[in-house]
């Protein structure tokens, strides 16, 4: 388990409940889908680290985007520029990027690892469409950045704005025959409904859950995949959606 002591170089609030931190970490080469475990406190309370997906890696600079959802992330939200953190990783297996035209489907904070993937696709000249849904307009983050890098980009919220609905609603107006592969990250219910839609193309799901150890020992993140138990942290977190048994 690789431990790093990092100093926060930049912090930005994207919304009242979502913030990003940046720090330098040379000597690694993370892939979209991988994550770090962040030590929340120097004491045993909270005991478990918090798993956070990598949202970007550029010139030794790591971006992590964190949503405040409980006590652990509330504590992390108090860190500032110049503060130091203990982090472990990166963990997991990143997604295997192909040169096939793809569609990226982001729900809520699931936009973070897909933003990293979108930047990779853009850098390699691979064509893609990015669709993104959130609860409220305030929860839609990285819109400006995504508009700059995605050849085609659309967004929606459940509470209104220019469009109302979930990100899966946007699929109704898209000709999926144009795509050869899909990538999705969001709430478990979103992924389940996406699987039920049976889109006829391989969809690679970035599974995010509450992980214990982050390195496969505790088995707390096991899911059923193609009739077997797999660990999100070690065997994933990216799995082909059709094989996940919800």
TrEMBL record:
The protein, known as: FAD-binding FR-type domain-containing protein
Cofactor: [2Fe-2S] cluster; FAD
InterPro entries per the UniProt record, alphabetical: Cyt_c3_hydrogenase_gsu, Dihydroorotate_DH_ele_sf, Dihydroorotate_DH_Fe-S-bd, FAD-bd_FR_type, FNR_nucleotide-bd, OxRdtase_FAD/NAD-bd, PyrK_electron_transfer, Riboflavin_synthase-like_b-brl
Family stated for the protein in its record: Belongs to the PyrK family.
Cofactor note: Binds 1 [2Fe-2S] cluster per subunit. Binds 1 FAD per subunit.
Gene Ontology molecular function, alphabetical: 2 iron, 2 sulfur cluster binding; flavin adenine dinucleotide binding; metal ion binding; oxidoreductase activity
Listed GO biological process terms: pyrimidine nucleotide biosynthetic process
Organism: candidate division WOR-3 bacterium
Record carries keyword Transport: yes
Residues of the FAD-binding FR-type domain: 1-97
Keyword field: 2Fe-2S, Electron transport, FAD, Flavoprotein, Iron, Iron-sulfur, Metal-binding, Transport
Residues the entry annotates as binding FAD: 50-53, 72-73
Chain positions recorded as [2Fe-2S] cluster binding sites: 213, 218, 221, 233
Keyword Iron-sulfur tagged: yes
Matching SUPFAM superfamilies: Ferredoxin reductase-like, C-terminal NADP-linked domain, Riboflavin synthase domain-like
């Amino acid at each position: 388990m690789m431990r790093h002591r990092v100093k926060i170089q930049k912090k930005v609030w994207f919304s009242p409940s979502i913030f990003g931190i940046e720090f330098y970490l040379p000597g690694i080469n993370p892939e979209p889908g991988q994550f770090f475990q962040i030590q929340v406190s120097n004491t045993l309370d909270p005991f478990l680290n918090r798993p956070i997906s990598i949202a970007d890696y550029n010139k030794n600079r790591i971006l992590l985007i964190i949503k405040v959802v409980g006590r652990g992330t509330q504590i992390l939200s108090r860190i500032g520029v110049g503060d130091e953190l203990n982090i472990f990783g990166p963990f997991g297996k990143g997604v295997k990027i192909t040169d096939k035209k793809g569609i990226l489907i982001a729900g809520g904070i699931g936009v973070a690892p897909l933003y990293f993937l979108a930047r990779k696709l853009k850098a390699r000249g691979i064509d893609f469409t990015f669709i993104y849904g959130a609860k409220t307009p305030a929860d839609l983050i990285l819109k400006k950045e995504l508009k700059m890098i995605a050849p085609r980009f659309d967004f929606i919220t459940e509470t209104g704005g220019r469009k109302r609905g979930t990100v899966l609603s946007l699929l109704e107006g898209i000709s999926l025959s144009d795509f050869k592969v899909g990538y999705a990250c969001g709430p478990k219910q979103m992924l389940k409904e996406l699987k039920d839609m049976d889109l006829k193309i391989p969809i690679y799901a970035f599974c995010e859950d509450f992980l214990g150890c982050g390195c496969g020992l505790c088995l707390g993140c096991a899911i059923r995949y193609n009739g077997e138990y797999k660990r999100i942290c070690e065997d994933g977190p990216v799995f082909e959606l059709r094989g996940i048994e919800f």
